């Protein structure tokens, strides 16, 4: 008799040959007595993410409802989606969420169950994960055979159709050679969703595909291949400063989820050193190779506008050289850095976060104003930042606004004036017109018992060391 009140370990995985394409899912279930159950299946037209989700769904469905499930997946999309992102998705009624049908099934299955989710690196030799991967490929094999059989049946009346079909081991792909590695999934999904009316002329395409020659100078001016010069806007430093570079940065994207193939369409960053804007900035529009969809309502950038813009890989060298080594300051920086890391990783540069430090102004705001709204718009109102037209979000405009907010939150003067030499020539009346932030720092005095405890401690220190402590020395010098 099986004891259902026990631990079950599940290894789940998905595979897709082409994305979208023929896919399969696989599940290895191991109960407390080390009994194993293997499940797999496939679909003729699907995506890798759908197969990863289906594997998790089928694995849970096949497990006892009162068992404690420990699930291992090599898909961060599944693991983070069910443990972190799903609350927000449900709050917005699944708007703009991809694969909502499967996420809703998974959410319903997880209700009132005891489940621990774990991410595990794929193709790293882990026995359970390799077994699930093998099963997923078996599922894809079964879908391949069904598709071949269906195609053959549909073409029986064709003059060129043979009466019998011979098994083609390359189509069956027994070694999983056609499976798309997880790190390539985003790129393959995007290529499959390329905007058809974004086709460039042959001459324009050849120019954009040509090797790019770019050299970032010490003042961040750049020499860019002529075909790209009109798309990459870098302004020179007009107010040189010496110190650590801060880059106030913002991005616009086709959606919220880089894991689902959403891409960057605009990047804007302005340089700040010693709490002074240097005048240097970078601004780029990017062809995301997919439709912008409903995100156009936020940023106002249409498919037609982005059609002739360069792809991220073509501007990656210039952007990476401009950003690397700086401290990136962004509002909800996790969002921007995840997208930038994914884009640079895909372009072969590695993760931007490995060569930059990051400051998140949203976290700063939450610490400073707990329990209050801390969106960029809310902070602009709270700190009386000069209003700007934000009918549409723009990366460079939001970066400029954020620079004001950052200075205000960190206690400095708020000003977008760049030429430092103008500061000394201004009259006192002009300087009085500058927007400044008055911050009242509370003075907290110690209680009498705290003072007495401190006195007792200093006395014990002096008795033990035969000399007064630094506190006592400082107090004596003041007196």
What would your notes on this structure say?
With 479 residues, the chain is of the alpha/beta class. It has helices at 48-61, 76-91, 100-110, 127-154, 169-172, 185-192, 202-209, 226-229, 296-299, 303-306, 312-323, 333-346, 361-368, 376-382, 395-409, 421-425, 428-432, 448-465, 470-478, and strands spanning 7-17, 21-30, 36-46, 68-73, 114-119, 215-216, 222-223, 232-235, 245-253, 264-273, 276-285, 327-330, 357-360. It has 3 domains: 7-141, Nucleotidyltransferase, domain 5 (2-Layer Sandwich), CATH 3.30.420; 197-409, Nucleotidyltransferase, domain 5; 448-478, no CATH class. The strands form 3 sheets. It has a 6-stranded mixed β-sheet with strand order 8-11-10-9-12-13. Strands 3-2-1-4-5 form a 5-stranded mixed β-sheet. Strands 6-7 form a two-stranded antiparallel sheet. Strand 2 (21-30) and strand 3 form a beta hairpin. The model is unreliable at 156-221 and 412-428 (pLDDT under 50). Monomer. It is found in: Cytoplasm. Belongs to the RNase H family.
Produce the secondary structure layout.
Blueprint: E1 7-17, E2 21-30, E3 36-46, H1 48-61, E4 68-73, H2 76-91, H3 100-110, E5 114-119, H4 127-154, H5 169-172, H6 185-192, H7 202-209, E6 215-216, E7 222-223, H8 226-229, E8 232-235, E9 245-253, E10 264-273, E11 276-285, H9 296-299, H10 303-306, H11 312-323, E12 327-330, H12 333-346, E13 357-360, H13 361-368, H14 376-382, H15 395-409, H16 421-425, H17 428-432, H18 448-465, H19 470-478
Parallel strand pairs: 1-4, 4-5, 9-12, 12-13
Antiparallel strand pairs: 1-2, 2-3, 6-7, 8-11, 9-10, 10-11
């Amino acid at each position: 008799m099986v004891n259902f009140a026990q631990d079950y370990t599940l290894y789940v995985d998905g595979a897709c040959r082409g994305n979208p394409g023929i896919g399969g899912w696989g599940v290895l279930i191991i109960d407390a007595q080390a009994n194993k159950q293997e499940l797999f299946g496939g679909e003729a037209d699907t995506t890798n993410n759908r197969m990863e989700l289906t594997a998790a769904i089928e694995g849970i469905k096949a497990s006892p409802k009162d068992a404690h499930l420990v699930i291992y997946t090599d898909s961060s999309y599944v693991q983070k989606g069910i443990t972190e992102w799903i609350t927000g998705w449900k709050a917005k009624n699944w708007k703009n969420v991809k694969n909502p049908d499967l996420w809703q099934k998974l959410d319903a299955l997880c209700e009132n169950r005891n489940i621990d989710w774990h991410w595990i690196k794929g193709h790293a030799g882990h026995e359970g994960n390799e077994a699930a991967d093998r099963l997923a490929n078996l599922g894809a094999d079964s879908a391949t055979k069904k598709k071949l059989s269906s195609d053959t049946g549909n073409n029986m009346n064709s003059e060129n159709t043979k009466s019998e079909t011979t098994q083609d081991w390359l189509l069956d792909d027994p070694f999983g050679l056609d499976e798309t590695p997880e790190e390539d999934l985003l790129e393959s999904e995007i290529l499959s969703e390329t905007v058809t009316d974004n086709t460039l002329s042959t001459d324009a395409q050849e120019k954009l595909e040509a090797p790019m020659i770019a050299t970032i100078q010490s003042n961040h001016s750049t020499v860019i291949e002529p075909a790209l010069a009109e798309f990459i806007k870098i302004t020179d430093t007009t107010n040189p400063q010496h110190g650590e570079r801060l880059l106030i940065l913002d991005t616009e994207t086709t959606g919220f989820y880089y894991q689902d193939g959403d891409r960057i369409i605009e990047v804007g960053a302005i340089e700040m050193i010693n709490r002074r804007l240097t005048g240097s900035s970078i601004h780029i529009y990017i062809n995301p190779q997919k439709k912008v969809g409903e995100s156009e309502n936020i940023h106002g950038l249409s498919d037609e506008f982005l059609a002739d813009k360069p792809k991220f890989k073509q501007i990656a060298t210039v952007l990476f050289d401009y950003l690397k080594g700086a401290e990136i300051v962004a509002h909800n920086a996790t969002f921007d850095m995840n997208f930038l890391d994914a884009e640079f990783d895909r372009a072969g540069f590695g993760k931007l976060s490995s060569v930059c430090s990051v400051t998140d102004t949203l976290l700063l705001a939450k610490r400073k104003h707990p329990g209050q709204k801390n969106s960029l718009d809310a902070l602009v109102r709270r700190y009386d930042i000069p209003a700007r037209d934000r009918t549409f979000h723009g990366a460079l405009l939001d970066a400029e606004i954020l620079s004001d907010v950052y200075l205000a939150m960190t206690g400095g003067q708020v000003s977008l004036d760049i030429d430092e030499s103008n500061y000394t020539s201004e009259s006192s009346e002009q300087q009085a017109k500058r927007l400044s932030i008055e911050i009242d720092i509370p003075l907290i005095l110690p209680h009498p018992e705290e003072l007495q405890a401190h006195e007792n401690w200093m006395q014990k220190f002096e008795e033990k060391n035969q000399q007064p402590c630094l506190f006592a020395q400082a107090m004596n010098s003041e007196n």
